[in-house]
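$ fold --in a.seq
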Amino acid sequence: LRFGMTRTQVVDLLGNPKEEYNSFRKLEPYLDQELHGPHYIDLLKRSTMLTFGDSDRNNQRPEVGFLDGRLDEIYLRAKTGVLFVNGVNVLGNDRPEIIVALAQKEKIMLFSGASYYFEDVGVRITAPKFWRKEGSISLYSREGFDKQMDLGHP
């Protein structure tokens, strides 16, 4: 997968999605125009998510996000494996070591709730303490990371 790909290119690579949804429609009952603002709501309206079923090797395929029809987010369950981002295996076993290694490549590391945000490398690590069962990794393009910040994340 490469940021900027179209929906058609992603489907050609990963197969037909299990589900496709618009974040705005999913969140609409909970949105407040004054509280969330028109810019946030506009981003949600322009965003589409695709989810894929498990592959034949039992690895969960990613959920991917599009903004204006272009791939800008890749969401992965954090199972042990290999995925290098700027020379750091973000799916490795030693979670604190991964966070420290990514932090050394950052000007500013953001922390909110149970998530670490690494803006320069475009990575969010969620729930590292509970990595195997509940944690996740999200990879973002520059536009995708800016969207996350606009969507009320730190």
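$ fold --in b.seq
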Amino acid sequence: MIIPTHHHPETLEYAICSVLQQSYRNFRLVIICDGVSQETRQITAKFKFERRVTVLEFPKSSRVGEEYRDFAIRKYPSRYVTYLGDDDLFLPDHLKVMKSELLKYDFSHPVPVYVNKERQINLFAKTDLREKKWVNWHIEGPPYKNSISLTGAAHTREIYFCLKEGWAKTPENRWTDHYMWCKFFSLDGIRLSTANFSTTIKTPQ
């Protein structure tokens, strides 16, 4: 699984800990440092002796290090890939639920919830990728619409290599996660799902 980070040292440690506390224990966490500060390095250094954590440090990319995500997926073999924002959290069964989904599907995501600025938990969007209308809702545009966060999205490594292009620099007028998801959604025969559970918490942007 992948956590991309640039400068959220105040939340990054909590995000990492939410991965290490997963009920499913057999995973590799790759933290992708996209031009990080010394403050962020001090956070990642706390986990240097954790065998399941790998920290990759790169110069600041022109956007959010999309090409570094591609590098990590290609370098570290894993049957499944999932993502976590450096200011968000996994609930304890996220990996367990996503693995169960990816035994049947190629791409999945949990029902998204977020904490708003009033510290209330809200349903982010009602989406079910098993229904074609929701897939079309994401693809159609502009203007584009997206209800699938980077945090929690998951796919098999096998389906990633079916793409003509994986993670790459995103056009300036597009959201990086939505631009990537549309690449998946355009694949013929891809099996898509929205899990029945909320397994992540997004914090206010």
